[in-house]
Write a structure and sequence with these properties.
Elements: E1 5-10, H1 12-17, H2 20-23, E2 30-31, H3 34-40, E3 50-54, H4 62-66, E4 76-80, H5 86-98, E5 103-107, H6 116-122, E6 131-134, H7 137-146, E7 149-154, E8 170-175, H8 184-188, E9 192-194
Parallel strand pairs: 1-2, 4-5, 4-8, 5-6, 7-8, 7-9
Antiparallel strand pairs: 1-3
Length: 201
């Protein structure tokens, strides 16, 4: 509901199966054959007879979503340090929604755009959880500290397990990139580094 809808395309069979309230939306669905819809979409996209062209959601600023509200309930934000795979980012967005995170913070560069691939992997989470893109992650982490967040970086080589850290209060959980993990500067901006214990296999 937060997106501006620009064009709605449907195959004739998909159009027949649409409920009346969907057929009567704005913009009204336009009938197209399957191949014409496929040609309008990014390579590899699967449309299953329906395609809706929308504008990206407005991206909030850090303080818009991370400042403590009236409820005084502790907040959890997840910070992604240059994760580049849209499938991984989509899966993280899903998990963030499932665990009640307040927001996800990404770098403006070295992060996937809010594409159809990311949206599909996120299974709706992209439209539920605010995604904040920042130009300088180190500065954003300093701002999080100023806003009262403990910054906890996940590192498989960290000396302490995550269960050994007091995670009460506002927490910024910082995840590193695929393969390389947290960058050194990002790790230095964390208050704690912790590992998630895993079996040897």
């Amino acid at each position: 509901p937060g997106r501006k809808k620009l064009q709605f395309l449907a195959t004739s069979s998909a159009l027949e199966n649409l409920p009346a309230h969907v057929k009567n939306t704005e913009p009204a669905p336009e009938a197209r054959d399957s191949e014409k819809i496929a040609r309008l979409l990014p390579a590899g996209a699967v449309h299953q007879g329906l395609a809706l062209r929308v504008q990206n959601l407005p991206e909030p600023g850090l303080e818009d979503v991370c400042v403590q509200g009236d409820d005084r309930k502790p907040r959890l934000v997840v910070v992604l340090d240059q994760l580049t795979d849209p499938q991984n980012v989509g899966a993280i967005l899903r998990s963030c929604v499932a665990f009640g995170a307040t927001a996800v913070i990404l770098t403006g560069q070295h992060a996937p755009p809010p594409s159809g691939v990311l949206a599909k992997a996120a299974s709706g989470a992209l439209d539920i959880i605010p995604v904040v893109r920042v130009t300088n992650l180190a500065r954003a982490m300093e701002q999080l500290a100023e806003l009262g967040y403990w910054r906890v970086g996940l590192d498989s080589q960290a000396p302490q397990a995550i269960a050994d850290i007091d995670l009460s209060g506002n927490i910024a959980l910082v995840l590193g990139a695929e393969g390389s993990g947290l960058r050194q500067l990002t790790a230095r901006k964390c208050d704690f580094l912790a590992r998630i214990p895993a079996s040897g296999q």
